[in-house]
What we know:
The structure holds 2 protein chains of 2 kinds.
Chain A: E1 4-7, E2 10-11, E3 14-15, H1 17-27, E4 33-39, H2 43-50, E5 55-60, H3 69-83, E6 87-91, H4 96-107, E7 111-121, E8 124-131, E9 136-142, E10 148-152, E11 167-170, E12 182-188, E13 202-206, H5 216-226, E14 229-232, H6 234-238, E15 259-263, H7 269-272, E16 280-285, H8 292-295, E17 298-301, H9 304-319
Parallel strand pairs in A: 1-4, 1-6, 4-5, 5-11, 6-10, 7-10, 13-14, 13-15, 15-16, 16-17
Antiparallel strand pairs in A: 2-3, 7-8, 8-9
Chain B: E1 2-7, E2 9-11, E3 34-36, H1 38-54, E4 57-63, H2 69-78, E5 82-86, H3 96-108, E6 114-118, H4 129-137, E7 141-150, E8 156-162, E9 168-174, E10 177-181, H5 193-201, E11 205-207, E12 226-232, E13 241-242, H6 247-260
Parallel strand pairs in B: 1-4, 1-6, 4-5, 5-11, 6-10, 7-10
Antiparallel strand pairs in B: 2-3, 7-8, 8-9
Amino acid sequence: MKDIFVLIEHRRGEMRDVSVEMLCGAAGLGGAVVAVLLGKDVDAFAEKAAGYADKVLYVNDPMFENYNSEAYQKALSALIKEHNPGLVLIGNTAQGIDLAPALAVELGAPLVTDVTALEMDGDKPKPTRQFYGGKLDAHMVMKDADLYILTVREATFQAGEPSKSGEIVKVENPVKEEITYRKFLEYVEPEVGEVDITQSTLLVGVGRGIREDKNLPIVEELAKALGADLAASRAVVDAGWLPADRQVGISGKTVKPKLYLAVGISGAFQHVTGMKGSEVIVAINKDPDAPIFGIADYGIVDDLFKVVPKLTEKIKELKGL
Amino acid sequence: MNLVVCVKRVPDTAESEVHIDASGKDIDKSRLSFGINECDNYAVEEAIQIKERLGGTVTVISLGPKENDEVIRMALAKGGDEAIRLEDEAFDGGDGFAVAKALAAAIKGLEFDIVFTGALADDDGYAVVPAALGELLGVPHATYVKKVEILEDGKRAKVGRELEGGLLEFLEIELPCVLGIQTGINEPRYASFKGIKQAAKKEIAIKSAADLGLDPSEVGESGSWAVLEKFTPPVVGEMAEILEGDPEETAAKLAAILKEKGLV
C-alpha cells in the first residue's frame, strides 16, 4: 500500500489531540505513516509526531504560523503531488472541514467527512460516518481512485504511546507565490459570563426538547432544587434562551461535574464531546433511540414536561424544602 | 451586493425517532416534518441583512423536488428576490460534492459577490458544500462563519470563524467568495404575512442537469465521491439503565438514585 499522509493540526502553540489519534489509527492500515506538519518553528511538534510516524515532512515557514486555507491547500496539494500518498487523513475539525473539501476538489480525490470508524479493503478505505445527528451509522462506499481523503472525527482512534522514531525531513516550502485572498487577522476568546460551568459540581443541561424559552422555568426550578447550575445545548444558546457561556460541547465548554442531568438533549456528538466525562449522567428524553441514552447511566424515556416537575417535587421532599 | 443563498430542505429528526426503511439506505420519512436546514436559515438571514444594509439582490437556490418550493418561498418572503430550483432525477442520491457541482453550475451563470450556504446539513452532516463550492467556482471560501462584516471598499470582508471551544478566528477574505454560515450568527426573522403573500406570486426558475450543461454522470450518485451502502443503528456502549413507570414513579426512582449517590 502507498503512504498515508496525516495532517498535524496545531493552534496557538498546541498540537491538537486528533493529530496523534490519527497517526495511531493510520499505523494499523497498511501503508507507511507520514506526518505532515506545516508551521512556524514547531520543531517540538515534529519531534512528537516522529514518535508515532515513519516519517515527518516538516515545512517551517511564517506562512503557516496560523491556519489559512489558502496557504495550507497550496502546500498540501504540492506535497501530495510530489510524494503520491494513497490516503490523506485530516481532522474533522473547524480547520479540517474548511480545508479538505477544497483540496479534494482540486486533486480530484474522493473525500468522506466526519469518519467515525474505518476499515480498509486493500488500498481503498471503507469509512463509516453518522447521519441524523448520530441517530444512524452510514456505511460508505468510495469511488475508485488513486488518492483518497478522509476527515476523521476526534476520538475515533485511540492515542497510544509513542513507539516509532520516524525521520524528520525538513522540506522547503513548496508555496512560492504570495498568499493573497485570505489573510489571518486574530483570535478572539469567547465571552466569559457570571457562572463558570466548568467549575460546577452539579449541572442540569437543557436542550431543544424544551421547545420555547417560556418553558425554561421548569428546568430552572429543578436546578434550584438540586443546587445545580444550568447548562445548555447549542440549540438553546443559538435561540438566545441562555447565554453562550452556558453552552456545553465542541464549540462550547467541556464539563466534568459529579452529575450531568440532560433534559431534552438528544445527544449529538457535538454536545456529548463536552460532557461525556461527567461522573453520573442522567437523561430525560422522549425518544428511546436518542443517542444520549448510549452514554447516560440512567434514563427516563418520557415527556420532560411531565417528568421534570415531578422530579423537582421529589428532590424538594428529600431535601425537606 | 449580489448575494446568493443555497438552502436545503431536510426532515426534522432532532426530536423524533428515526427508522431505517426497507431499502436499508434511507429512513422512513412518512411521519417526519420537513423544513429548512438549520444553518441555512441563518444563511438566509445573513444575506438579507447585508442586502438591507448595502443594497443589492438575494437569489435563493435549492436542489430538490417541488416540495423544496416551500423553503424557497419562505426565504423569498423574508426578503429574497429571485429563486432557482435545481430538479432532475440525475441529481438523486448525490453527496455533498455532487450537490456542490450542481450548485456551482447554477451559480456560474450569475453575478455574485457572496454565496452563502449553511456550514453543514442536519441530515447527512457532510459539511462539504462551502469549501467544495468555493473551489469549483474558483473563489475563496470560509466555513463555520459566525461574523461577517463587509469592508468599506466592498471588495473584501472580515469574517469570524467559530473554532473548537467557541474561539473565533478572524480573517480577511476577498470577494467574491463562498461563506458557510454557522447557527447563532444572527436572529433569523419570521416572514411577514405581506411577505408570504408576495412570495407566493414569485416565479421559481426550474433548471435540469441539461439546462446547467451537466452530464448526468457528473451529478447524483454517479458523480459522488461516495455512496451510502447501508444504514445501521449506531454502535452504542452500555445503554443507560432505563427507569420504568409513569412520571410519578420514574421521578421517585431517579430522586432515590441521586440521593443514594450522594448527589442530593
